[in-house]
Specification:
This protein has 377 residues and is α/β, with parallel strands linked by helices. 45% of the residues lie in helices and 19% in strands. The chain is built from 14 helices and 13 strands.
Length: 377
Amino acid sequence: MKRTLATLMALCMMLSLAACGGTDDTSSGESGGEPVKYLIGISQYGQHGSLDNCREGFLQGLKEAGLEEGKDYQIDYQNASFDDNMAIQIAQAFSAEDAALMVGIATPSATACYAAAEDKDIPVVFTAITDPVGAKLDSGNITGTSDVLPVEGQLELIRALQPEAKTIGIVYTTSEANSVYSVKVYEEKAAEYGFTIASVGVTAQSEVTQAVDTLIAKGVDCFSNLTDNNVVGVLGSILEKTNEAGIPVYGSEIEQMKLGCVAGAGLDYVQLGIQTGLMAAKVLTGEAACEDLPYETIENYGLYIMGTDGKAVLVCRVKEKGSVYVREYLEQIHLSAPWMAIGYSAENRQAFGAYEKSETIAKIIAKKDKMMSQFPF
């Protein structure tokens, strides 16, 4: 009886999601003739830049693998709006409509998809998960890509920009395995770079800004932002508070720098999505089973700074930590943000704006273009 009720609920959810504007998941191709081969259900935990980039990259990966939307596959895309219960309902709907593949973007969506797919043995591919092992998504009919953060790269960057800084503040969601894992790594590595970590855990997005106030009151020298979904979802509100307090926030991917984080050792989530799409194509076409494809971790990251015009500038891509390139670029990054020496604020950025635009930033970009050819990737 319980199974029957669950199935009925999933069917109702599927119909309601379609009525609310989900992507058309009909089985006919664009020509109106031959049916598409595969129905792919994509569950994205919420809408923000990094997760959106994952989804866009995923579709690019399918295209690079030679699969054509409307001919080879149809997409049913749903957004859970950072609601765990909604993520579960979306996954159950995908199972009820017999999707050929479920894609979970972020841990809660991937976990929900894996649970809903198990009875029918539907393959699941995930992306934007920092700790697949901790989330128990590292075995079974599931595979994907991990966005483990370049924590040491971030610590190096912060030390280069703030030589006198002592304490880094981090706000994270206690129920997000990704965030718990990342905070642990920060705590393990911070002392090597002369930092201590002051962290505050939250249980809901509504608690984030209060946690930021708590850390500001404790006198942290800066914040390091994770890819925590609840925190990133209110990054604009966080930056309003930190800007007023004159405390810099470092991001963990380029979209956060675009929103106003001062700098960051960040991942390219479009590339992560492409990597995921290529894996999914192998599963869909029968070239490989999920069990044959261990989850993959993106190797490279970029060092970004935010210019005075509010645009994120890629200073360099990093593959090998500690290389001469990294040290040289860190020196250049320090020169590119002279306002850090007198305190972080929008006014200080503007005061040094002409200098940055006419000299330092231009030199960095020129040097990057010249030296990028020496990188083996």
